[in-house]
Amino acid sequence: MPYIGKSPVSGGFHKLDALTASATATYALTLGSAAYFPETANQLLVSLNGIIQAPQDSFTVSGSNLVFDTALTSNDSIDFVVALGDVLGVGSVTDGAITANKIGNGAVTKAKMGTTELDLATIKDSTGTNTAMSIDSSGRILTPQVPYFYFRGYAGLATNAIAATDKPVYFDAIEESRGGGLDNSSTLGASYTVPVAGVYCIWANVGLTNSADYLGLALYHGTTLKQKGWSGNDLAHYSNHVQVVMNLAQNDVIRCTIDISYNVPNTDPQYMNFCGYLIG
Asked: By CB distance 3.0 to 4.6 Å, which of 20, 65, 80, 204 could disulfide with 256?
Protein backbone atom coordinates (compact mmCIF):
# COMPACT_ATOMS: atom_id res chain seq x y z
CA MET A 1 0.00 0.00 0.00
CA PRO A 2 1.51 3.39 -0.95
CA TYR A 3 1.87 6.16 1.62
CA ILE A 4 2.49 9.89 1.41
CA GLY A 5 5.81 10.34 3.16
CA LYS A 6 7.44 7.51 5.07
CA SER A 7 5.52 4.26 5.51
CA PRO A 8 4.68 3.24 9.07
CA VAL A 9 6.73 0.54 10.77
CA SER A 10 6.09 -1.34 13.97
CA GLY A 11 7.96 -3.47 16.49
CA GLY A 12 11.54 -4.69 16.39
CA PHE A 13 14.93 -3.69 17.79
CA HIS A 14 17.59 -3.03 15.18
CA LYS A 15 21.30 -2.39 15.00
CA LEU A 16 21.57 0.11 12.16
CA ASP A 17 24.18 0.03 9.40
CA ALA A 18 27.68 1.17 10.41
CA LEU A 19 28.56 4.88 10.12
CA THR A 20 32.01 6.29 9.35
CA ALA A 21 32.88 9.55 11.10
CA SER A 22 34.04 12.51 9.00
CA ALA A 23 34.14 16.29 9.19
CA THR A 24 30.37 16.69 9.53
CA ALA A 25 27.68 16.51 12.19
CA THR A 26 25.00 14.87 10.00
CA TYR A 27 24.91 11.15 9.11
CA ALA A 28 22.31 9.27 7.09
CA LEU A 29 20.82 6.33 9.02
CA THR A 30 20.15 3.12 7.09
CA LEU A 31 18.96 -0.38 7.89
CA GLY A 32 19.83 -2.99 5.30
CA SER A 33 20.99 -0.10 3.03
CA ALA A 34 17.49 1.43 3.15
CA ALA A 35 16.85 4.77 4.79
CA TYR A 36 15.74 4.41 8.40
CA PHE A 37 13.46 7.02 9.95
CA PRO A 38 13.44 7.15 13.76
CA GLU A 39 10.41 8.76 15.33
CA THR A 40 12.53 10.41 18.02
CA ALA A 41 16.14 10.69 19.20
CA ASN A 42 15.05 9.00 22.42
CA GLN A 43 14.53 5.85 20.38
CA LEU A 44 18.27 5.59 19.56
CA LEU A 45 21.22 4.26 21.50
CA VAL A 46 24.37 5.90 20.06
CA SER A 47 27.97 5.12 21.06
CA LEU A 48 30.67 7.60 20.04
CA ASN A 49 34.30 6.90 20.87
CA GLY A 50 33.19 4.26 23.39
CA ILE A 51 30.82 6.64 25.20
CA ILE A 52 27.02 6.41 25.10
CA GLN A 53 25.61 9.74 23.96
CA ALA A 54 22.64 11.50 25.53
CA PRO A 55 19.73 11.93 23.12
CA GLN A 56 18.52 15.49 22.60
CA ASP A 57 21.68 16.81 24.32
CA SER A 58 24.45 15.13 22.27
CA PHE A 59 22.40 14.38 19.15
CA THR A 60 19.01 14.78 17.54
CA VAL A 61 17.29 13.25 14.51
CA SER A 62 15.98 14.93 11.42
CA GLY A 63 14.08 12.63 9.10
CA SER A 64 16.48 9.74 8.46
CA ASN A 65 19.53 11.72 9.63
CA LEU A 66 21.43 11.51 12.89
CA VAL A 67 22.68 15.01 13.81
CA PHE A 68 25.40 15.43 16.46
CA ASP A 69 25.56 18.65 18.40
CA THR A 70 29.06 19.34 16.95
CA ALA A 71 30.81 18.22 13.82
CA LEU A 72 32.99 15.11 14.11
CA THR A 73 36.38 14.41 12.54
CA SER A 74 37.83 11.39 10.82
CA ASN A 75 39.58 10.56 14.08
CA ASP A 76 36.24 9.92 15.81
CA SER A 77 34.58 6.52 15.86
CA ILE A 78 30.83 5.99 15.69
CA ASP A 79 30.81 2.58 17.42
CA PHE A 80 27.15 1.69 16.78
CA VAL A 81 23.64 3.01 16.52
CA VAL A 82 20.83 0.82 17.89
CA ALA A 83 17.14 1.59 17.41
CA LEU A 84 15.31 0.54 20.58
CA GLY A 85 11.98 -0.46 19.04
CA ASP A 86 9.94 1.26 16.38
CA VAL A 87 7.12 3.65 17.22
CA LEU A 88 3.75 3.36 15.55
CA GLY A 89 0.96 5.83 16.12
CA VAL A 90 -2.41 4.21 15.45
CA GLY A 91 -5.61 6.19 15.15
CA SER A 92 -7.78 3.11 14.75
CA VAL A 93 -7.20 -0.60 14.23
CA THR A 94 -8.23 -2.10 10.91
CA ASP A 95 -11.26 -4.38 11.14
CA GLY A 96 -10.18 -7.98 11.68
CA ALA A 97 -6.57 -7.03 12.45
CA ILE A 98 -6.62 -8.28 16.07
CA THR A 99 -6.70 -12.08 16.05
CA ALA A 100 -7.13 -14.58 18.90
CA ASN A 101 -3.36 -15.21 18.99
CA LYS A 102 -2.75 -11.53 19.77
CA ILE A 103 -4.88 -11.69 22.94
CA GLY A 104 -3.09 -13.08 25.98
CA ASN A 105 -4.53 -15.99 27.93
CA GLY A 106 -6.76 -14.68 30.70
CA ALA A 107 -6.51 -11.11 29.38
CA VAL A 108 -10.24 -10.73 28.74
CA THR A 109 -11.66 -10.18 32.22
CA LYS A 110 -14.88 -8.68 33.54
CA ALA A 111 -13.00 -5.48 34.35
CA LYS A 112 -11.66 -5.24 30.79
CA MET A 113 -15.14 -5.72 29.39
CA GLY A 114 -16.37 -2.94 31.65
CA THR A 115 -19.19 -5.00 33.11
CA THR A 116 -19.85 -7.82 35.55
CA GLU A 117 -22.60 -9.19 33.32
CA LEU A 118 -22.76 -10.59 29.82
CA ASP A 119 -25.64 -9.45 27.65
CA LEU A 120 -26.30 -12.38 25.33
CA ALA A 121 -29.37 -13.15 23.30
CA THR A 122 -28.11 -16.36 21.68
CA ILE A 123 -25.30 -18.88 22.02
CA LYS A 124 -24.35 -20.80 18.87
CA ASP A 125 -23.02 -24.34 18.59
CA SER A 126 -19.38 -25.15 17.77
CA THR A 127 -20.04 -24.63 14.04
CA GLY A 128 -21.43 -21.16 14.64
CA THR A 129 -24.54 -22.12 12.63
CA ASN A 130 -27.23 -23.44 14.97
CA THR A 131 -28.63 -21.69 18.04
CA ALA A 132 -27.81 -23.89 21.04
CA MET A 133 -29.30 -21.56 23.64
CA SER A 134 -31.29 -18.34 23.64
CA ILE A 135 -32.50 -15.99 26.37
CA ASP A 136 -35.69 -14.06 25.74
CA SER A 137 -36.60 -10.60 27.03
CA SER A 138 -38.12 -12.11 30.18
CA GLY A 139 -34.94 -13.97 31.06
CA ARG A 140 -36.25 -17.40 30.08
CA ILE A 141 -33.57 -19.78 28.79
CA LEU A 142 -34.52 -21.78 25.71
CA THR A 143 -32.51 -24.76 24.43
CA PRO A 144 -33.98 -25.60 21.01
CA GLN A 145 -31.54 -28.43 20.25
CA VAL A 146 -32.15 -30.57 23.38
CA PRO A 147 -33.10 -34.16 22.33
CA TYR A 148 -36.48 -35.51 23.47
CA PHE A 149 -39.06 -38.11 22.39
CA TYR A 150 -42.69 -39.03 23.00
CA PHE A 151 -44.52 -42.24 22.00
CA ARG A 152 -48.32 -42.14 22.44
CA GLY A 153 -51.14 -44.72 22.54
CA TYR A 154 -50.97 -48.51 22.61
CA ALA A 155 -50.64 -50.59 19.43
CA GLY A 156 -50.09 -53.98 21.07
CA LEU A 157 -47.51 -56.41 22.35
CA ALA A 158 -44.40 -57.39 20.46
CA THR A 159 -45.90 -60.91 20.13
CA ASN A 160 -49.47 -62.20 19.92
CA ALA A 161 -49.37 -63.59 23.45
CA ILE A 162 -52.45 -62.76 25.48
CA ALA A 163 -51.24 -63.05 29.06
CA ALA A 164 -47.69 -61.77 28.84
CA THR A 165 -44.64 -61.38 31.05
CA ASP A 166 -42.00 -58.72 30.38
CA LYS A 167 -43.12 -58.19 26.79
CA PRO A 168 -42.00 -55.28 24.61
CA VAL A 169 -44.83 -53.06 23.42
CA TYR A 170 -45.63 -50.91 20.40
CA PHE A 171 -47.33 -47.51 20.39
CA ASP A 172 -49.82 -45.89 18.04
CA ALA A 173 -47.67 -42.92 17.08
CA ILE A 174 -44.43 -41.03 17.50
CA GLU A 175 -45.96 -37.80 18.76
CA GLU A 176 -42.85 -35.65 19.23
CA SER A 177 -39.13 -36.04 18.75
CA ARG A 178 -35.90 -34.12 18.31
CA GLY A 179 -32.59 -35.79 17.53
CA GLY A 180 -34.00 -38.99 16.02
CA GLY A 181 -33.27 -42.44 17.41
CA LEU A 182 -36.89 -43.67 17.58
CA ASP A 183 -37.96 -47.14 16.41
CA ASN A 184 -41.52 -48.43 16.77
CA SER A 185 -41.15 -51.61 14.70
CA SER A 186 -38.13 -53.59 15.91
CA THR A 187 -38.33 -56.92 17.75
CA LEU A 188 -37.60 -54.91 20.91
CA GLY A 189 -40.86 -53.03 20.50
CA ALA A 190 -40.77 -49.25 20.78
CA SER A 191 -37.23 -48.12 21.57
CA TYR A 192 -35.14 -44.97 21.79
CA THR A 193 -31.47 -44.88 20.76
CA VAL A 194 -29.69 -42.07 22.61
CA PRO A 195 -28.33 -39.50 20.10
CA VAL A 196 -25.87 -37.79 22.45
CA ALA A 197 -24.31 -38.76 25.78
CA GLY A 198 -25.74 -37.13 28.90
CA VAL A 199 -28.16 -37.41 31.81
CA TYR A 200 -31.71 -38.23 30.71
CA CYS A 201 -35.11 -38.31 32.39
CA ILE A 202 -37.14 -41.27 31.03
CA TRP A 203 -40.66 -42.31 31.98
CA ALA A 204 -43.56 -44.48 30.83
CA ASN A 205 -47.26 -44.80 31.66
CA VAL A 206 -49.63 -47.70 30.99
CA GLY A 207 -53.33 -48.15 31.70
CA LEU A 208 -55.90 -50.98 31.25
CA THR A 209 -59.67 -50.68 31.50
CA ASN A 210 -60.71 -54.22 32.45
CA SER A 211 -60.00 -56.44 35.43
CA ALA A 212 -56.72 -58.25 35.84
CA ASP A 213 -54.74 -59.69 38.68
CA TYR A 214 -51.78 -57.37 38.12
CA LEU A 215 -50.15 -54.92 35.75
CA GLY A 216 -46.38 -54.49 35.59
CA LEU A 217 -44.37 -51.80 33.73
CA ALA A 218 -40.60 -51.78 33.31
CA LEU A 219 -37.90 -49.55 31.77
CA TYR A 220 -34.84 -51.22 30.26
CA HIS A 221 -31.42 -49.82 29.46
CA GLY A 222 -30.53 -52.22 26.66
CA THR A 223 -31.08 -55.59 28.33
CA THR A 224 -30.63 -54.22 31.87
CA LEU A 225 -33.75 -53.61 33.96
CA LYS A 226 -33.57 -50.10 35.44
CA GLN A 227 -36.99 -49.63 37.07
CA LYS A 228 -40.16 -51.68 37.47
CA GLY A 229 -43.55 -50.83 38.95
CA TRP A 230 -46.60 -52.94 39.83
CA SER A 231 -50.28 -52.33 40.47
CA GLY A 232 -52.78 -54.83 41.94
CA ASN A 233 -56.50 -55.43 41.38
CA ASP A 234 -58.42 -52.17 41.15
CA LEU A 235 -61.73 -53.58 39.86
CA ALA A 236 -62.00 -52.18 36.35
CA HIS A 237 -58.95 -49.96 35.90
CA TYR A 238 -55.23 -50.53 36.13
CA SER A 239 -52.50 -47.94 35.66
CA ASN A 240 -48.83 -47.82 36.28
CA HIS A 241 -46.03 -45.31 35.97
CA VAL A 242 -42.25 -45.61 36.15
CA GLN A 243 -39.64 -42.88 35.90
CA VAL A 244 -35.83 -42.90 36.07
CA VAL A 245 -32.89 -40.53 35.65
CA MET A 246 -29.98 -42.19 33.87
CA ASN A 247 -26.50 -41.22 32.71
CA LEU A 248 -26.48 -42.60 29.18
CA ALA A 249 -23.84 -42.97 26.48
CA GLN A 250 -24.41 -42.23 22.83
CA ASN A 251 -26.20 -45.14 21.06
CA ASP A 252 -27.53 -46.66 24.30
CA VAL A 253 -31.02 -48.13 23.77
CA ILE A 254 -33.98 -47.45 26.10
CA ARG A 255 -37.25 -49.40 25.89
CA CYS A 256 -40.25 -50.34 28.03
CA THR A 257 -42.10 -53.61 28.65
CA ILE A 258 -45.34 -54.65 30.39
CA ASP A 259 -46.55 -57.64 32.40
CA ILE A 260 -50.27 -58.48 32.26
CA SER A 261 -52.28 -61.39 33.61
CA TYR A 262 -55.59 -60.92 31.81
CA ASN A 263 -56.61 -62.25 28.41
CA VAL A 264 -57.05 -59.59 25.73
CA PRO A 265 -56.78 -56.49 27.91
CA ASN A 266 -58.44 -53.27 26.80
CA THR A 267 -56.11 -50.31 26.81
CA ASP A 268 -56.80 -46.71 27.69
CA PRO A 269 -54.74 -44.64 25.19
CA GLN A 270 -54.62 -41.56 27.38
CA TYR A 271 -52.61 -43.57 29.93
CA MET A 272 -50.23 -45.11 27.39
CA ASN A 273 -47.02 -43.21 26.66
CA PHE A 274 -43.25 -43.59 26.66
CA CYS A 275 -41.12 -40.47 26.63
CA GLY A 276 -37.99 -38.72 27.83
CA TYR A 277 -35.55 -35.85 27.34
CA LEU A 278 -31.94 -34.82 27.89
CA ILE A 279 -31.39 -32.99 31.18
CA GLY A 280 -27.81 -32.02 30.48
From this structure: 204
